[in-house]
Amino acid sequence: MKYLLLIYSNESSWSGLSEQEQGQMYEEYMDYTRSIHRSGHYLGGEALEPIATATTVRVRDGKTLSTDGPFAETREQLGGYYLVEAKNLDEAIGLAARIPSARFGCIEVRPIMPTPPMD
Amino acid sequence: MDLAALYREERPRALATLIRVLGDFDLAEDALQEAFAAALAQWPQDGPPANPVAWLVATARHKAVDRIRRAATLAEKREAIAAEAALACTPNVEEETLTDDRLRLIFTCCHPALAPEARIALTLKTLCGLSVEEIARAFLVPGPTMAQRLVRAKRKIRAAGIPYRVPDADDLPERLEGVLRVVYLVFTEGYAPTAGEARLRRDLCTEAIRLARLVRVLLPHEPEAVGLLALLLLQDSRREARFDGAGDLVTLDDQDRALWDGDEIEEGHALAESSLRGGGGFYGIQAAIAALHAASARPEETDWRQIAALYDLLLRRHPSPVVALNHAAAVAMADGPARGLALLDDLDRSGALAGFHLLPAARADLLRRLGRKAEAAEAYREAIRTVGNAAERRYLERRLREC
pTM for the whole thing? Predict the structure, then answer.
C-alpha cells in the first residue's frame, strides 16, 4: 500500500535552532531519506518553504480568489512529506516514527486511496 | 442439538479465520451468516459434521467466492481477482491455526490507530460474538451509534491497512499493553457497571476472562498477560458476595467469604505468583494484592502490611491518582486511619481526583473511624453528590445515616 507521511511541526522550533543544530537536523533527514531509499520504501518526498510563502486559492462563482497564507492557522504547520510504499499500517507507522521531526512535531500517516486504472 | 448455541460458541473462531483468509470483516461476517443458514438446513437432517468450525469455514469460503463472482463493478472485480488468489489455498483449520487467528484478530481489533471505544466494541463484536444491540446496551449508547462506530472502525482497518498479525517483538510490549487494557475495560464495565442490565454485565466479565485466557495461552511468557488473567479470576471469584439480596453493595469486610469461588481463587493465586516471579507489572501486582485478600479466611486476618507494600510498589512503578487512593486506604489499615487520612488529604489537595466519588468516600470512612463524625458526614454527602452507581449510592447513604 502507498502512504503519505505528512510532517507537521512548529516552524519556530526550527528557526530557534542554531546553525549547527540545523545542519545536524539536515544530515539526519538525508540519512533517513537514504535509508528508506535503500529499503525500497521511498516513492517520493520534499520539504516545503515556510508557511509565510503559502497562498490559498478558491474558485467561487467562476472567479478565482487568491489569499495570503494557509486556510487555517494551526500551532503546527505542514513542513514536508514522504510518499512511501509499506506492507501495512504497522510498517508505515514504523517509517513515520523514524522521521527526525517526529521527536518534536508529529507525522500524519494517510493511506493513498487506490484508484482504478484509467481506460 | 442446540444449533443456535453451537453457532454462538463456534462463530468467533470461524470468523477469525475467515477474516484472515478473506481479508475483510464484512465479507467474512456475511459469508459466515450464509454458511450458518446452510447449516440450519443441512445439519438437522444429516447430523452435524465432525468438525463444525472447519465445516463453517469451508462453506463460508465457498459462499464468499460466490459473492465475489457476483460482484458487479470493475473495482470490485479487481478486488475479486486478488481475493480469489488468496482463496486458492485451502484454509488450515487445525486447532492451532484457529487459535492463532484469534490472537492476530485481537491485535487488529485493539490496534492503537482505532478509537479506544471502537477497539472495545470491535473486540466484543468480533471475538466474543456479542450483537451490536447487546454492545450498545452494555455501553449505554444508542444502537445506531454503536453500529456506526463499528462500520467506521472496519472501514479504517481496510482503508488504512491495519494488518492481521501479532506484532513484531519490538512492538509487542506496547501493543500487548493495549490489548490487555481493552480486556480489562471489558471486565470492569461488567464488574463495576456505571448502569445497565445485570445479565449483560455477567456476560462481559465472562467474555473478558475468556479473552484473557486466550491471550495468556498464546503468550504464556508475558508476565502481564498472566497477571491480567489472575487479576480477573480473583476479582470475579467475589462476584456472588458483592451484592446482597436487595442488590446493595457489600464491602470486602462484610462479604460472606463462603460465597467466594474457590476454584477461581486457586487458579488466580497460582497465576498471580507466576506473574510476580516473571517481574509482575500493573496487572501482576494488582493480582498479588487480590490474592492476599482472597487468602484471608476472615477480614481481620488480612495481611495489610504486605498489601500496603505492594500498593507502594505499584504506585512507584505505575503512578496514578487511583493507585494513590488505594495505597492510602491500605496504609490506613496497616498503620492506622490517621496515616491513611494524611495521604488522602494530600491527594485531595492535588485536585487529581476532583469529582471522583471514591476519594470523598474513602476520606469519610477514615474520618468515621477516627470518630470525627461531622467531617465524615460532610465527606459522605460529597461522595453521594458524584456517585453514579445506584447500589454504591445506597451504601453511602446508609453510612451517612450512621454518622
Answer: 0.79
